[in-house]
Design a protein that fits this description.
four-stranded mixed sheet; about 40% helix; globular
Length: about 80
């Protein structure tokens, strides 16, 4: 992976899994954690009331949820 990944996390199991996957792919990522780096109102303001954790961006491109990020990685041949 060439782009730095940003993960907006609430430290849920899905967020932890996404971080572990990125580590396994040797990807560089930054994890922003609810309550440490942002609050819930900022999350909703940025991603909307229906958004779930984690929200993921590759470089400057917001991808979305974990499911959408997995599809993005798969489409680029990074997941088999």
């Amino acid at each position: 992976m060439n782009d730095t990944v940003v993960i907006y996390s609430n430290e849920s199991q899905e967020c932890e899994r996404m971080c572990l996957l990125l580590k396994a792919l040797d990807g560089e990522f930054h994890e922003y954690v609810l309550g440490q780096h942002f609050d819930e109102s900022a999350f909703v303001s940025e991603f909307g009331p229906e958004a779930t954790y984690p929200q993921i961006a590759f470089g400057s491109k917001h991808i979305g949820s974990m499911k959408e990020a997995l599809r993005y990685l798969s489409d680029r041949g990074l997941l088999v």
